[in-house]
Amino acid sequence: MESTSPFDAPTNAAVLITAYASPTSQISSDVISATTGSSLSAPPVTYSPILPVTPSTVAPCGASSSLLVEIPVTPSMVAPSGASSSSLSVEVYDGNEHVDTFEKIWNWPMWYVINAVRVNFIYKNVHDNNLHLFLIDRTGDTFTAVVPRLLVPRYENMDLVGRVFQIHHFQLGYNGHDFPRYEGYSLHRKECEIEISKNTRVTPVEPDVARDIPHYPKTILSLRHLAEDRSKKRMIVDVIGRVIRGHRRRDRRPYDQIHVGFWELYIQDSSGQVMMVILHHNHNHQLWKTPFTVHDSYLVYISRVKLIHSTSDNFLVSNNLTEVEFNPEISL
User: Fold this and answer.
1) What is the sign of the dihedral through the CA atoms of 184, 190, 191 and 194?
2) Same domain (yes/no): 127, 105
3) Domain of 141, in residue numbers
4) Model pTM?
5) Radius of gyration, alpha carbons of the chain
6) pLDDT given for residue 287 in this prediction
7) How far apart, in whole angstroms, are the C-alpha atoms of residue 153 and residue 261?
8) Are 170 and 197 in contact (CB under 8 A)?
């Protein structure tokens, strides 16, 4: 889809002419001063810029040098007689702060580009009809992007899950503790999130870039932390552990007396904590693998299970959002 973003081309961008030969280059509000290098023994020479430049229009506070596009400059443009033009360039600021990790997204009014993130999961909130994209950056850190309901049809038709994209032209938002919830359980508890706008572009990256983005978050709550949690917060979490034992159970639903099957798995993680996970048969968990999982002590990565607080031992229960991966390519 063609974007109407005013940031697609740097037609209104501020242009800065600098000489890189000396770190003592200085910028004032209406002129640019530069030392031209060892080829000249004269004191610093002052040039008039081609376009008016002020510090506020060059780059926002804390902007990365990756914001700037280097293009050639001819001697006739800026270089005085006898000065070398090889050390001169034009830098164009495109109006977005380019970042490669979520931790660099902190400035509320700033517009950002994040170079590569993996879409791990998508959830449509039934309360406000917004779409929530759960993302992983190159460090394994996680963040959520929110698509407002008017833009949801555009993103629902895109093949996003599991793939890696650049997200171009977005801002940081605050959810006011209005976390996305499923059956009353929060899917995350971060107060900040990426706000997708009508001018935001989501573009697939090259395969060699995509390979550097992990498939799993770097931080997963330990089973010990979950087992000892007494906050009573209704949370949906991811866990990883090795199956040490398991049993198949059948339960009778009170409202129709139909027997429903489920598995009780007991998993242990690197903290040494053992925790029970109930996987219901009516959820799509590839449970035909479960007997082999128990017998062979499989490592399992279980996404989006409910944490159930109990007066004795806390435990985990699956739901329609839960996915189970057997022997994932991840170390415990």
Assistant:
1) negative
2) yes
3) 97-210
4) 0.67
5) 27
6) 55
7) 37
8) yes
